[in-house]
Every structure is written in structure tokens, then in C-alpha cells.
Design brief:
Length: 139
């Protein structure tokens, strides 16, 4: 188990979205810290922070997708919605005090999802957005 490391391969070619992704990675990486993973109250607080920032980021990203008529917008938004519901579910379990999952499991889920989502889905949108911007400038 390793923390998520930002790489140039994660860049979507949009500075604001890239910065949001760096912030999301930093939040998820708080769950990598062994002390944080052992404290249900800290896990809950980190998940609250992750949910709030994720909502902000997804709203920004989705607005750009709509503006550019991204062809797989609905499917991409569904992925965002599913992640948000899953993280809210984890947070609610920790809030209730009876969580059967560990901080390590939450970290592994979030880091795996975020890494794959940025590398696969968001970079695909970045390529589309770059191509669309180039076509608009040329047209």
C-alpha cells in the first residue's frame, strides 16, 4: 500500500482541474497515514473533507463537460455520483460508530478509484477538451 503520487500522466491539460486533482490526492493521502487510519473520528473528518471537495470539483468538471458537449457526459457524471454515494456511505458508517470497514479499506478504495478515474476518464475528457478547443480556434 502506497500513497498516490501525482504524475504528468494524470494531467488533463487544464490547470484548474489538475490542481483540483492534486488537492483530492492530498486529501485521500491523509488516509494513508497510519495514525489517521486508526481513528474513526479522523477518518470521518477526512471523508467529510473529501466529500465537500469532491462535490466542488465534480461540479466544475461537469460544467465544463456540458459546455463542450462531451459525448459521454452522462456516463461520466454517473461515475461521479456513484463515487460520492460510496464515500458518503463510508462516512456515515464511521459517524454511526459501528463501521465494519477499516481506514485502510477506505484508503485503498479511494486511492484506487481516484487514480484510475483520473488516468482513464479524466484524461480522456482532457484530450476531448483540447481537441475541441483547437477545432474552435481553427474554425
Amino acid at each position: 500500500m502506497e500513497p498516490i503520487q501525482w504524475s504528468r500522466w494524470m494531467s488533463v491539460g487544464n490547470d484548474a482541474l489538475d490542481e483540483d486533482h492534486r488537492v483530492l490526492i492530498a486529501i485521500v493521502n491523509k488516509l494513508y497515514d497510519d495514525t489517521n487510519r486508526q481513528d474513526p473520528a479522523l477518518i470521518e473528518a477526512i471523508l467529510d473533507e473529501l466529500i465537500a471537495y469532491t462535490r466542488h470539483h465534480f461540479a466544475e468538471e461537469e460544467a465544463q463537460m456540458e459546455q463542450l458537449n462531451y459525448p459521454t457526459f452522462a456516463a461520466h457524471k454517473a461515475l461521479h455520483d456513484r463515487l460520492t454515494r460510496q464515500v458518503e456511505s463510508y462516512r456515515d458508517e464511521f459517524r454511526a460508530g459501528g463501521s465494519r470497514i477499516s481506514g485502510e479499506e477506505v484508503f485503498l478504495f479511494c486511492s484506487d478509484w481516484l487514480g484510475k478515474h483520473i488516468l482513464k476518464e479524466d484524461t480522456r475528457f482532457g484530450e476531448y477538451a483540447g481537441t475541441g478547443a483547437e477545432m474552435a480556434a481553427a474554425g
